[in-house]
Every structure is written in structure tokens, then in C-alpha cells.
Task: inverse folding
């Protein structure tokens, strides 16, 4: 395949879906900035991907707006452009009805799953505009379109990602910046390691969990030139879970 002269930023890159997207983009020849709070896993991935492409890493917390600002400065200094962004770092919550959810827990989820995406897009878009466009994918969930019992903070946060993606897509549609959201069902990653996989698989009409590589293929398509007419869209990848 022809090597892409593109630069990507991925948050939550050290594990699960973010990691698989990084592996796929690296194989396509993208230069990548990997961002995650998990230094050990991020450094492991850096040494693996450095064999095939140019990689920089930034270890830190996406809820710190200054950390995101510095990350974008680092991308500008290292590569001088930003074409693709996967805003993906996210966490889930313990299962509880809303009256039993602590105020601090609520704000923690909103900070990681919602506010960080605003920080990312706020700083990513000016750099994308310097090279006259870009493609942003925000990681929501099927729970950004439907609800499930006892997960109000997560469901609320992922619906916010859906709305934010549509709003920002409109803001920049006439400046060649596309913004889409991706909505996975349950995907085999460390995020859901604590939940019984057979129980979860049975909830998907296809009878299995999704793979991070399958989500990476969708993200790669949304970044690509083949998706030029797609913006403000919600891409469900859930083995039929949400059509029931
Ligand atoms: P994962 O394997 O847990 O990977 C998420 C990565 O983000 C981890 O390396 C995590 O580090 C990092 N991270 C967490 N909080 C962070 C913060 N504040 N700042 C920087 N990095 C942070 O999860 P995943 O399954 O790939 O999930 C990725 C995204 O997909 C999330 O937004 C999730 O909500 C969404 N999603 C996942 C599923 C699923 O079934 N897996 C389904 C729908 C949507 P630590 O592990 O050290 O915290």
C-alpha cells in the first residue's frame, strides 16, 4: 500500500480500541501521536510502532486541558500538521441506580468521557485548519444512542459525545473538517474484563463480542478519503445489539 503522508492523534492509545487503531494507522504509514495515562503500556506500543513509522507519545490525563494543549503543540513542532484525531480515552462505571451514584463519580465520568473531548477538539481543530482540513472520530458507544439500566453516568456521557460530534460537525462542515462518532457494542478489551463475557455475548444477535480490530477498520474508513461526504454521522458497530 502507498504510504500515507498523514498525521494522527489517538487518545486512550495504550489499550483496547485505541491501540488497534494505532497499529492499523501505523501499518498505513501514518505518523502518530499516542496519548494515554498508562505509561508502561504506552511505551511498549511506542517501541513496537516505531519500527514501522514515526511515533511520538505523551503520557498524561486527558481531563487536563493544558496537557491536551501541550500535546497539540508537540504535534505541531514534530510534524507541522494534524489530519486525523481519534478522541477515544474513556472509562465505564460500576452498575448503580442514579440515587446511589456519588457526585464525585458523576463528575469524574463527565470529565473523562465528555469534557476531554471538548479539550481535544478545541485544540486539534486550529492545527487541522492550518493544513486545510481533517477528520475527527469521537468514541461514543451504542449506549450513546440507547440506554441500559443502572449506568446513568456512562449513558449520559456517551449521549453527550453523540450530540457534541454533531454540533462540531456543523461548525466546521464548510472548512473541510469532518466529525463523526462511532458506537460500539461490547468489544473484547480490558475495559469490560470484569463483566461475564458469555452473558454479554448472548445479548448480541450475532452471538459474540466485537473485536477491537473491527472497530479499528471502521475508524480507518472514516478517516480515509473514501468517507469525504460523511460528517455528523453516528456509526453503530454492535453485532445488532441496538436494533432489538
Ligand atoms: P481500554 O482498553 O480500557 O482502553 C482505554 C485506555 O484509555 C486505557 O489505556 C486507559 O488507561 C486510558 N485512559 C483512561 N482514562 C484516561 C485519562 N483520563 N487520560 C488518558 N488516558 C486514559 O478501553 P476500550 O475498551 O479500548 O475503550 C476505548 C473507548 O471505547 C472508551 O471511550 C469506551 O467507552 C469506548 N467503548 C468501549 C466499549 C467496549 O466494550 N470495550 C464499548 C463501547 C464503547 P488505564 O487503563 O490505565 O485507565
Result:
Amino acid at each position: 500500500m502507498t504510504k500515507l503522508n498523514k498525521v494522527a492523534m489517538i487518545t486512550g492509545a495504550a489499550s483496547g480500541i485505541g491501540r488497534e487503531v494505532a497499529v492499523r494507522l501505523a501499518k498505513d504509514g501514518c505518523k502518530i501521536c499516542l496519548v494515554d495515562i498508562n505509561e508502561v503500556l504506552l511505551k511498549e506500543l511506542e517501541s513496537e510502532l516505531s519500527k514501522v513509522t514515526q511515533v511520538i507519545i505523551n503520557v498524561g490525563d486527558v481531563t487536563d486541558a493544558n496537557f491536551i494543549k501541550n500535546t497539540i503543540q508537540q504535534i505541531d513542532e514534530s510534524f507541522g500538521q494534524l489530519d486525523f484525531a481519534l478522541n477515544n480515552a474513556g472509562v465505564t462505571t460500576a452498575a448503580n441506580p442514579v440515587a446511589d451514584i456519588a457526585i464525585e463519580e458523576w463528575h469524574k465520568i463527565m470529565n473523562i468521557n465528555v469534557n476531554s473531548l471538548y479539550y481535544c477538539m478545541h485544540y486539534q481543530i486550529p492545527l487541522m485548519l492550518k493544513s486545510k482540513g481533517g477528520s475527527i472520530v469521537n468514541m461514543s458507544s451504542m449506549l450513546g444512542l440507547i440506554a441500559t439500566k443502572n449506568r446513568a453516568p456512562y449513558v449520559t456521557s456517551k449521549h453527550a459525545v453523540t450530540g457534541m460530534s454533531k454540533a462540531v460537525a456543523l461548525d466546521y462542515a464548510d472548512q473541510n473538517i469532518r466529525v463523526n462518532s462511532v458506537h460500539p457494542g461490547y468489544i473484547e478489551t480490558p475495559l469490560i474484563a470484569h463483566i461475564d463475557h458469555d452473558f454479554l455475548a448472548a445479548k448480541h444477535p450475532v452471538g459474540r463480542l466485537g473485536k477491537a480490530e473491527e472497530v479499528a477498520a471502521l475508524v480507518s474508513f472514516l478517516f480515509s478519503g473514501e468517507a469525504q461526504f460523511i460528517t455528523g454521522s453516528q456509526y453503530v458497530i454492535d453485532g445488532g445489539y441496538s436494533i432489538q
